[in-house]
């Protein structure tokens, strides 16, 4: 099985090691999320050849105990972020016809089914959203998206909000399904995220192309 390191040229070039050294230096004076052992959780839980859906986030949550290396996910017991709450609302309507059911805020269950929960920046300074957007992570994560588009077929890319949608040019729309909507944030969810039906569309596409529908 090919690993992420095998498939992403920037990884085996030493770029990632340079990024980690840069972040480790920052950790000596300020608090950075997620902790070092969770920076690559998304990659560890979803191997390159097991990816079915790519969900692009902006950066990790910047509050204590929230970030765990998976876009939009927080550990059990942490207060649910508003955007994740709205994601669950849309799933309830789209997949379960409005029947309320319990959802875990820990999206590990998605990751192990092939939902690659990728933040464009893999780290963030405590209390400062988007503080690492210019640190160098975007060069790496853009390359990850490019290589997934090039080397895989029939993936679903979920691009919510302008930042995620800026990644569209990196994706071959002839090989993959690209679904776009407003961000699930309370500021924009009612302007196109609610009712987007991305979860059922993703599952229908996966089933059509030999993939396994996701249990959202």
Architecture blueprint of SSEs:
Blueprint: H1 4-7, H2 9-12, H3 15-27, E1 32-33, H4 41-45, E2 53-57, H5 82-94, H6 108-111, E3 115-119, E4 124-125, H7 137-151, E5 156-160, H8 161-165, E6 177-181, H9 198-208
Parallel strand pairs: 2-3, 2-5, 5-6
Antiparallel strand pairs: 1-4
Task: Give a brief rundown of this model.
With 216 residues, the chain is an alpha/beta fold. Helices cover 34% and strands 11% of the residues. The chain is built from 9 helices and 6 strands.
What is the terminal separation in angstroms?
26 Å
Strand content: 5-15%
Number of helices: 9
Q: Order of strands across the widest beta sheet?
A: 3-2-5-6
Q: Average pLDDT, to the nearest integer?
A: 97
The low-confidence parts are: none
Features:
single chain, 216 residues, alpha/beta, four-stranded parallel β-sheet, 9 helices, 6 strands, globular
Account of the 3D structure:
The strands form 2 sheets. The chain has a 4-stranded parallel β-sheet. It is an alpha/beta fold and 216 residues long. It is built from 9 helices and 6 strands; from the N terminus they run αααβαβααββαβαβα. Helix 8 links the parallel strand 5 and strand 6.
């Amino acid at each position: 099985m090919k690993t992420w390191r095998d498939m992403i040229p920037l990884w085996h070039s030493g770029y990632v090691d340079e990024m980690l050294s840069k972040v480790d230096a920052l950790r000596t004076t300020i608090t950075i999320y997620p902790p070092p052992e969770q920076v690559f959780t998304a990659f560890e839980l979803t191997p390159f050849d097991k990816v079915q859906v790519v969900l692009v986030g902006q950066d990790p949550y910047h509050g204590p105990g929230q970030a765990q290396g998976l876009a939009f996910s927080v550990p059990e017991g942490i207060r649910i972020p508003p955007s994740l709450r709205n994601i669950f609302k849309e799933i309830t309507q789209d997949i379960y016809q409005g029947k309320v059911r319990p959802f875990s805020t820990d999206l590990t269950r998605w990751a192990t089914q092939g939902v690659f929960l990728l933040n464009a920046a893999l780290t963030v300074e405590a209390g400062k959203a988007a503080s690492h957007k210019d640190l160098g992570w975007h060069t790496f994560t853009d390359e990850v998206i490019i290589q997934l588009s090039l080397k895989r077929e029939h993936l679903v890319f979920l691009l919510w909000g302008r930042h995620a949608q800026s990644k569209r040019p990196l994706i071959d729309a002839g090989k993959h399904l690209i679904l776009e909507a407003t961000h699930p944030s309370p500021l924009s969810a009612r302007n196109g995220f609610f009712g987007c039906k991305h979860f059922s569309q993703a599952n229908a596409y996966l089933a059509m192309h030999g993939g396994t529908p996701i249990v959202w």
